[in-house]
């Protein structure tokens, strides 16, 4: 009888401890958990905000199913207009006024760069931020942060190697967003090409506040470059592809994953003008007929029709946001009833072999003590004029 009493007492104490941990975490109650994010719903990078809309839609679907472990997700999102000062203002509001349990999927390298030290100091989990800026993956400096994109450094090195293998003697033009996003790509090329960088590469930075970068494309053509990397956001990638075609410049053209959406980049540029454009991706294209009978894409089309009616299913940003929602759901499932901020971060860094229905075959999500990125694998693909054609095998972060 004494043993049973001790066992019962231990169980009660464990339950109380879990309840206490949840109660001490801001934004957590018996019925809900508050989660916050900022997105550029307006401003120069507003097409990317459809990632946020995809996340919101998936969270709505989770809540319709009863939430996770009995709790609904109260997702609070604000517009930061892709402006660092606005991102700071809205992030402070989420943490200090709304008292969210954690931040999940805030989007935009400039805004994240402006807020990450504040979030770290507040010891608020900062999970799967939508940026591939390499510095955000530094555990020692940012122990509360995990990233939702492959690092721009990894992506850039893949492109640099692809160009040197495909056109070893080509001069390379890089048009890049003048912040951590764009500069990471330039650094990746410099690290890959080493002594050849200064001889082979010409660069042109642009500010996101510029209305157009067409004159920069003309200047880069005049350099005689035979390869062209565009490292920025969809609006400017579309302008660059279109202008290059208009002036008769046909280099080997590569765009970064952030600008790979057919609806946000390829269509505005002109599908015919983008023929031959190469990008590395993690996701399937929902409009591509090759996935017509794919079980994962059938699920996505049904989900999209119900939760994003009237939206453009060809916009990859919605799909990426949906995947972000699935990662959020996975983290909360793994947390169980221990919703302490320490455990939330721990579980975000303990995802093993998570395969999502819309990921490219062979790509899965794995995080751990030595990796804060959701994705460390990429698949190269080329635009044919009507769809993406994959080539080569899945490439990993170690570039093997």
Any overview of this molecule?
- It is a single chain.
- The strands form 3 sheets. The protein has a 5-stranded parallel β-sheet with strand order 2-1-3-4-5, sandwiched between helices.
- Helices cover 42% and strands 16% of the residues.
- It is globular and about 65 Å long.
- α2 links the parallel β1 and β2.
- α12 packs across α13.
- The protein has 13 helices and 13 strands.
- By secondary structure, the chain is an alpha/beta fold.
- The N and C termini lie far apart (61 Å).
- The protein folds into 2 domains: 208 residues, Response regulator (Rossmann fold, 3-Layer(aba) Sandwich), CATH 3.40.50.2300; 148 residues, Rossmann fold.
- The N terminus is likely disordered.
Unreliable stretches? 1-21
Tell me what the CATH architecture of the largest domain is. Answer: 3-Layer(aba) Sandwich
Number of domains: 2
CATH 4th-level superfamily of the largest domain: Response regulator
Strand order of the largest sheet: 2-1-3-4-5
In DSSP terms (H or I, runs of 4 or more residues), the helix count works out at 13
How is the biggest beta sheet arranged? 5 strands, parallel
**CATH topology title of the largest domain:** Rossmann fold
């Amino acid at each position: 009888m004494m043993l049973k009493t001790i066992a019962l007492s231990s169980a009660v104490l464990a339950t109380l401890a879990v309840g206490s941990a949840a109660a001490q975490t801001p934004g957590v109650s018996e019925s809900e958990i508050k989660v916050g994010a900022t997105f550029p719903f307006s401003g120069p990078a507003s097409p990317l905000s459809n990632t946020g809309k995809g996340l919101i839609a998936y969270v709505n679907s989770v809540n319709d199913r009863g939430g996770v472990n009995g709790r609904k997700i109260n997702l609070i999102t604000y517009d930061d207009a892709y402006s660092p000062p606005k991102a700071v203002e809205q992030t402070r509001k989420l943490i200090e006024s709304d008292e969210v349990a954690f931040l999940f999927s805030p989007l935009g390298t400039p805004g994240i760069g402006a807020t990450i030290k504040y979030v770290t100091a507040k010891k608020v989990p900062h999970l799967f931020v939508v940026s591939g800026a390499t510095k955000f993956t530094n555990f020692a400096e940012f122990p509360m942060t995990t990233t939702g994109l492959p690092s721009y450094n990894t992506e850039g090195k893949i492109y640099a190697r692809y160009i040197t293998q495909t056109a070893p003697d080509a001069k390379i033009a890089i048009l890049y967003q003048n912040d951590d996003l764009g500069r990471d790509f330039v650094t990746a090329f410099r690290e890959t090409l080493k002594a050849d960088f200064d001889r082979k590469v010409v660069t042109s930075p642009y500010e996101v506040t510029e209305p157009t970068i067409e004159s920069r494309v003309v200047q880069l053509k005049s350099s005689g470059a035979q390869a062209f990397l565009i490292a920025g956001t969809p609006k400017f990638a579309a302008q660059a592809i279109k202008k290059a075609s208009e002036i008769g410049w046909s280099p080997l053209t590569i765009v970064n994953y952030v600008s790979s959406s057919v609806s946000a980049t390829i269509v505005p540029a002109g599908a015919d003008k983008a023929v031959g454009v190469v990008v590395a991706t993690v996701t399937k294209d929902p409009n591509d007929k090759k996935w017509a009978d794919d079980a994962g894409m059938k699920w996505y089309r049904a989900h999209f029709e119900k939760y994003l009616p009237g939206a453009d299913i060809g916009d990859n940003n919605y799909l990426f946001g949906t995947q972000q929602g699935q990662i959020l759901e996975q983290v909360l499932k793994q947390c169980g009833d221990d919703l302490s901020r320490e455990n939330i971060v721990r579980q975000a860094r303990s995802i093993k072999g998570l395969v999502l229905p819309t990921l490219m075959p062979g790509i899965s999500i794995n995080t751990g003590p030595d990796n804060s990125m959701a994705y460390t694998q990429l698949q190269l693909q080329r635009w044919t004029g009507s769809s993406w054609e994959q080539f080569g095998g899945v490439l990993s972060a170690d570039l093997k």
